[in-house]
Amino acid sequence: MPALFADLAFALRQLVNHRVYAITAIVSMALGIAATAAVYSVLYGVLIDPYPYRDANHIALVNLYDKQGSEGDIPFTLAEIQQLRKAKSLAEVMARRSVTMTATGGDLVTTARTYQFSGNGLDFLGAPAMLGRLWTASEAPEGVAPPPVAVISFLFWKSHFGAAPGVIGKSLELNHQKYTVIGVVGPRFTWGDGDVYLPLPADIDPQTRLQILVRVRPEASLGAATGELNAFFRQIAHDHPEMLPHESFDIKVETLNDSLLGQFKGTLFLLFCAVALLLLIGCGNVSILMLARGTARQQELGMRAALGATRLRIVRQLLTEAVLLSATGGALGMGLAYLAIRLIVGLLPEYSIPHEVVISLNIPVLLFSAAISVATGIAAGLAPALQFSRPHLNAILQAGDSRTATSRGAKVRSVMIVGQVALTVLLLAGAGAAMRTFLEAYTARLGFDPHNSLLMFMAIPERSYTTWQTRSQYLDALTERIKSTPGVLDATAFNGGLLPMGVWRQPVHLLGTPADESRQAGVLLVSADYFTLQRIPLLQGRTITRAEVLRGAHLTVVSQTFVQRYLAGANPIGQQVVPVELQHGFPQALIAANPEQPYEVVGVVGDVRNDGLHQPIQPQIYVPSTVLMFPGISFLVRTAGNPRLSVHDIGNSMRALDQNQAVTQEYAFEDFLSLFVWSHDRFISILFAVFSAVALGLAAIGLFSVVAYSVQQRTREIGIRMALGAPRLSVLVLTLTSVAWTTGIGLVLGVGLSIGLSDSVHKWTQSSMRDAGVLSITSAVFALASILACIVPARRAMRVDPMVTLRNN
Nearest 10 degrees: CA dihedral of 779, 784, 787, 789? Predict the structure, then answer.
């Protein structure tokens, strides 16, 4: 122990006496450790401890998949849920549904996002109440009217009740019905971003389909649960074919995290790989700095060896210095990690991770970061320690030919430079590809105009407008109310998807042609003026009128791509189209008369992005919004000014028609694009750009150190060359050549890695690192940074005074 304290004290004196070297090494370590700790904080929060619910790893959803991917979780009736509870692989099943209600007890009518759970719902989730208590399954058995009690969220408690500690027992009025508040859940209980949680009412329609959560038994695997439920679901699908896509499909029992994260889990792992590369670059950088520093200490280390220090003793001393550097860098990295976490959280795409997740520098993250600090110190200091642990040889060689001294450890340095350059180029290529993908998405031609428009999502008040005729008239009246709001230019209702993210794709038949299941198109249900409001150009024929929407006319407008792909050479006007899935009824949806009747094409409009921004435009058809009306409806509103300022007035206009009509969510369309369409590409491109910029800076410092090291080692040789008449330019070329080969090899290796790993990166980011333009720019940026890093020590070599050099040697 005394020897260890002596090593620490000596290492500290060395670092204080050589501040520039110490600061550079500490900053190199700090940047790598900060990025690693920040990304690990995200991974820990998202993958290791995402939910506050009981035994969350065994809570799962039953999801439906078709050829296009996930269709979401499958809804079941109460009778089917009772059957599902008999499955051997499942321990519990709970039912839930989302109901938008209005808090009507105060002076201002506000929206409350409400979830109704089956009686065992809160027991199933198992998160304790922060205040009061939760209702139990015995209080709300199925088939019996539950007590009018409510459990509220932490945020709703703050916003609606002012965080009053005496909230328990107070009355909450929802849709003019009073409930007693019996509990407040903690801040992390945010299931579905709900405000209020109620027991499921007993008089629910038996045909109503509810979302479910299942708890898989510990002894059963997800695969076993999937296999067991497959047969059960096939029987339900036989009885209710409208629930399924007409193509092949499958179901899968997936954990909450797997179901929500999807491909974003791969994106997080990719980021962790990126910061691991950054940490490796930082380790290599410190090793190179220690090699350069060790050159100046050869005489000192030789003297210590001559005085009896063993090789192990010298290795321990040098490793102590390396670990001290990395520990100091780790401490600084923690401060930087706090800022980095805030950056990453601010950039995370909306709904890409569970809202229950808490991302912070907690104890596990701090312990992980401390372990990383020590490990990186050992890794960074090992090669220099082994090289300089034979200082007696170095001391002898120092007295002889400098060119021989220069060759000592050259292979180690060359390997480090090649590896550092290759990893830096790989990060730069990833950043370049991600930035190009983001710019392509950001500047993509949408085919419609999102400016000065407002998206509003709402649900028809429960048990209201239950016939097709009354609901059609209500939606028309609601549209006219919104249009009459001051500052509103136009409004239209729509359903079936949202441009440009994706729309309801389904098979379509053309009368007079053979049936072909591969002939598919996106289907949007729209009201009159949709094309005018969206500024989608009319190319041929006409659009659908308000009167036709009111009567649910079987008319359709098709896109230019639809005509080119399916009606090439024919006049589209008057053609008869049958969207297959519009012929079937859906639970809680109201369908117009004669659903099997084909739709006549009355117009052709321009193409719009309807399958994301990275996929080709798909054929599209538009039908009246009233042919199939779901409880949920969306409105698009064009305003004269900032659409965000019109939300309150539009809400008042709607409630003047029906005081129970609430808006679930609203976004300025441009905000929606930023949050949900561009955010993933922006997240990847910014983080990769930051990581690659740091890596480039570290690589530049490493190259600077190597050239400086080379100049110091070859000072005598350079002096002799200049004394014999060598021009300064040749000295400059000689100096730069010392790293040109290793840098070139690293650059080629980095380009090769970028090409080889492109498919893996593309899987998670939609970016391609095989693009010649990206690789060319990446190579040019790195070459320029390398030249700038090497030019300063190279110019120092040009200023060597040959007389002084020869006199000192």
Answer: -100
Distance CA 161, CA 636 (A): 33
For residue 576, is pLDDT > 80?
yes
Q: What's the length of the chain?
A: 809
Q: What is the DSSP letter of 243?
A: G
> What sign does the CA torsion over 665, 666, 671, 672 have?
positive
Work out the end-to-end distance of the chain between its first and last CA atoms, rounded to an integer number of angstroms.
Answer: 42
Angle, vertex CA 536, rays to CA 533 and CA 539, nearest 5: 135
Q: Is residue 420 a contact partner of residue 285, using CB atoms and an 8 Å limit?
A: yes
**Residue 291, token pair as written in the block:** 């090699």
pLDDT value of residue 399: 45
Q: What is the pLDDT of residue 377?
A: 76
How far is Cα 587 from Cα 209, in angstroms, rounded to an integer? 7
Element (H, E) at 436: helix 410-442
pLDDT value of position 397 = 45
Q: What are 72's two structure tokens?
A: 């979401």
- Count Cβ atoms below 10 Å from residue 86 Cβ, excluding itself: 9
Cβ proximity of 448 and 559 under 8 Å: no
Token representation of residue 446: 């949408």
Rounded to whole angstroms, what are the CA distances from 81 to 90, 92, 198, 430, 668? Answer: 12, 10, 19, 47, 39
Compute the radius of gyration of the chain from its Cα atoms.
34
Tell me the C-alpha distance between 522 and 504, whole Å: 5
Banded model confidence at residue 363, pLDDT cuts 50, 70, 90: confident
Please report the sign of the dihedral spanned by the C-alpha atoms of residue 182, residue 186, residue 190, residue 193.
positive
Side-chain-side CA neighbours of 764 within 13 Å: the count stands at 20
Residue from 634, 484, 661, 702 nearest 102 by CA: 661
Residue with tokens 């096939």: 234
Secondary structure of residue 196 in the 3-state scheme: strand
Q: How far apart are CA 148 and CA 652, in angstroms?
A: 29
Q: How sure is the predictor about 712, in pLDDT bands with cuts at 50, 70 and 90?
A: low
Which of these, 311, 390, 324, 299, lies nearest to 4 by C-alpha position?
A: 324
What percentage of the chain exceeds 90 in pLDDT?
A: 34
Q: How many helices and strands (H and E) does the chain possess?
A: 26, 25
- 180 backbone dihedrals φ, ψ, rounded to 5°: -95, 125
429 near 687, Cβ under 8 Å?
no
88-125 burial, b at 16+ Cβ within 10 Å, e below that, comes to: ebbbbbbbbbebbbbbbbeeebebbbbbbbbbbbbbbb
CA distances from 388 to 170, 299, 313, 376 (A): 75, 11, 12, 19
pLDDT in tens, 507-520: 899 998 887 878 99
Q: What would the two tokens of residue 265 be?
A: 């889990």
Beta bridge partners of 94: 213
Contacting residues for 503 by C-beta, under 8 A, at least 6 apart:
496, 497, 522, 523, 524, 610, 611, 620
Q: Cβ distance 437 to 629 under 8 Å?
A: no
> What is the token pair recorded at 804?
């002084």
529: left (phi over 0), alpha (psi -120 to 50) or beta: left
Q: Identify the residue whose tokens are 């520039």.
A: 20
Task: Give which of 577, 557, 572, 595 is closest to 510, Cα–Cα.
Answer: 577
- Tokens 């290492």 found at: 11
In 3D, which of 570, 530, 577 has the Cα closest to residue 554?
A: 577
Task: Give residue 360's Cα distance to chain centre.
Answer: 17
Cα 567 to Cα 577: distance, rounded to the nearest angstrom: 11
Question: Is the distance from CB of 251 to CB of 72 less than 8 angstroms?
Answer: no
Does the pTM surpass 0.85? The reply is no
| 3-state SS, residue 228 | helix
Burial class (CB in 10 A: 0-12, 13-18, 19+), 165: exposed
- Name which of 500, 437, 441 is nearest 761 in CA terms: 437
Reduced to 3 states (helix: H, G, I; strand: E, B; else coil), residue 583 is: helix
